[in-house]
Design brief:
Chain lengths: ~300, ~280
């Protein structure tokens, strides 16, 4: 009796030691580079600091008051929301249509799949630069197309405050549609062949199969894609920074670019940390609410 | 009914062609321009096929600091990748196997960390790097790269390990194999396919990473490949073919990887698409 108890206790203790040893590295990294920075960011947001001198002036909630009344931050948030909505509305349907085409087309469309996937192979920076030149009013692709269609050329997309955000969203779609295409394609091809055969035998056309059978059974996948797109769009930074740096005149400013500018361009580290923390709160709340809504519906 | 079906098919085929043009044209623009002389695009137009294989652009790019940027990228990605793979391998073992009180809450922290936007941490990490005297060196990137790719890696690998049959370990334990030996002799070798997926996913991510590289490095000597485009742009601002040659060269490693193992690469790149 005594012996078994101590044996089980010994096992428990050895499990505990092993667990600690195995988990130490991962929490070392997470603690230093994720958890501590989040806390530090909130702490910094209570200060005024230029990032160079060692003196930080404690401001209390002053920065947060400024943030709540900051029209540029509000505009940046709106731009993020525009990207969220348009990304989901444009990327997912197109990606779904292409995925369905590739799925029904089978192996002989493999070369299409390869070309469609090309944009995914470039870094955001490269994509940004590529499209900066593609949009170039003088030498770019858009102007060339415009001339071919009998226009004047000289189409300025990124320099025009009304067009810039849409120009940027078009590039985002270009870059990410392949991702959702592959995502949907994987889901489509994992649907059992029997279901497809059964629907065709029952006299369904391809489009009927798509609308009535395939699409409804991909609800979960579509929801996940929408969540991925939502979270990604809220964090957006690289491409916009490369293409417009938030301009012209704040037309494409995002929360992340605004944070970067404050902290690293004009040296307002304290306020930059406030924007970062605000962004963190907004993203967390929106993600949690979305997940709640989506999971809630699934149960109902 | 049949007619409707045909109309749908035509629309889909049309979409396929349009998308082919949309996805392909900028790519064509990039590669074709890279082979043109500086003023060729003005005279012959954007879509024209290059007059000949003009390689001078590539020569000039490589003569510059290209190899240095390439080395920096390879170094940072390589070191971080090794750290990520070992750390997530270690962490996934207790998460997928051991019963202990804190298992769920600790794993919860990992899942939550997956959702943290890196921009919240940029300023503190920037400060930390300065304090550690690592600012503007490539070593500054290793910590953040490792840390930010760990949560999702642990998440994926824990799921993978959970599917390895428990019987193997149980019989090993009966044979007197301790926790560590079980891990190194049984679990680690069986996790290889999972690790391969992680390696692809993380390499691609880090190879293209931008934000940390932008904030934590400053001078040419410590720039990685994605940031090098900036340096070249400063040098060759008005020379579009030159910039396109840089972009083509930067995308080349990925394109090669894609050509060699496209299915594996696609699968690896999609590994991150886990339900939030």
């Amino acid at each position: 009796m005594q012996a078994t108890r101590s044996l089980s206790e010994y096992r428990k203790r050895s499990t505990l030691t092993a667990t600690t040893v195995f988990l130490l590295p991962v929490f070392f990294f997470i603690l230093i580079f994720i958890i501590y920075p989040i806390i530090d960011s909130f702490w910094l947001s209570l200060h005024e600091w230029n990032g160079i001198t060692s003196g930080k002036a404690f401001l209390g909630l002053e920065n947060w008051k400024t943030l709540l009344g900051d029209k540029i931050f509000f505009k940046a948030f709106l731009n993020n929301m525009i990207i969220v909505v348009l990304s989901i509305a444009i990327q997912l349907p197109i990606a779904m249509a292409i995925a369905f085409l590739l799925d029904t087309g089978g192996k002989k469309l493999n070369f299409l799949k390869m070309i469609y996937f090309l944009p995914m192979l470039m870094s955001s920076v490269a994509v940004g630069f590529l499209f900066k030149y593609t949009y170039d009013p003088q030498f770019g692709l858009i102007s060339a197309v415009d001339t071919m269609l009998g226009g004047q050329g000289m189409v300025d997309v990124l320099g025009d405050p009304h067009r810039a955000i849409f120009g940027v969203i078009a590039v985002i779609c270009w870059q990410f549609i392949p991702f959702y295409m592959v995502y949907f394609l994987a889901a489509l091809s994992s649907l059992p062949v029997e279901i497809y055969e059964a629907s065709i035998i029952d006299g369904a056309s391809h489009s009927q199969y798509f609308w009535r059978v395939a699409l409804p059974s991909m609800k979960g996948t579509i929801k996940s894609a929408a969540v991925l797109s939502l979270v990604g769009s809220l964090k957006y930074f690289d491409l916009i920074y490369v293409m417009t740096q938030g301009g012209p005149d704040g037309a494409t400013e995002l929360m992340a670019t605004y944070m970067y500018k404050n902290a690293f361009t004009i040296g307002k580290m304290g306020y930059g940390a406030t924007v970062a923390s605000g962004m963190f709160i907004i993203i967390t709340v929106i993600s949690l609410v979305t997940l709640r809504v989506i999971n809630g519906k699934e149960e109902a | 009914m049949k007619k409707k079906f045909k109309v749908g098919k035509i629309i889909v085929a049309l979409l396929a062609l349009i998308w082919l043009a949309i996805a392909g044209a900028p790519f064509y623009f990039m590669v074709a321009s890279a082979f043109k002389e500086q003023f060729e695009i003005f005279t012959t137009g954007v879509f024209a096929i290059p007059k000949g294989l003009y390689l001078q652009n590539f020569h000039k790019v490589i003569e510059g600091d290209f190899y240095k940027y390439l080395f920096n990228s390879i170094f940072v990605v390589g070191v971080s990748l090794v750290l990520i793979l070992f750390t997530s391998l270690f962490a996934s073992y207790p998460f997928s196997r051991f019963k202990f009180k804190l298992n769920k809450p600790l794993f919860g922290i990992i899942v939550a960390a997956m959702a943290v936007p890196i921009h919240v941490t940029l300023i503190p990490v920037f400060q930390l790097t300065q304090k550690l005297n690592l600012y503007d060196t490539i070593f500054a990137l290793i910590g953040p790269y490792t840390a930010f790719n760990l949560p999702i890696s642990v998440f994926i690998l824990t799921g993978f390990m959970a599917q390895i049959p428990k019987e193997l370990e149980e019989s090993a334990e009966i044979d007197g194999c301790g926790k560590y030996r079980t891990f190194f002799n049984i679990i680690a070798p069986l996790s290889k396919p999972g690790l391969a997926t992680l390696a692809i996913y993380n390499s691609v991510n880090m190879w293209n990473e931008f934000s940390f590289a932008l904030v934590l490095t400053q001078s040419q000597k410590s720039r990685t490949l994605p940031l090098s485009i900036w340096e070249y742009q400063g040098q060759y601002n008005a020379n579009i073919p030159m910039i396109m040659a840089v972009l083509t060269l930067c995308a080349l490693p990925m394109i090669l990887a894609f050509a060699i193992g496209q299915d594996k690469l696609i699968k690896g790149m999609m590994a991150g698409a886990v339900k939030g």
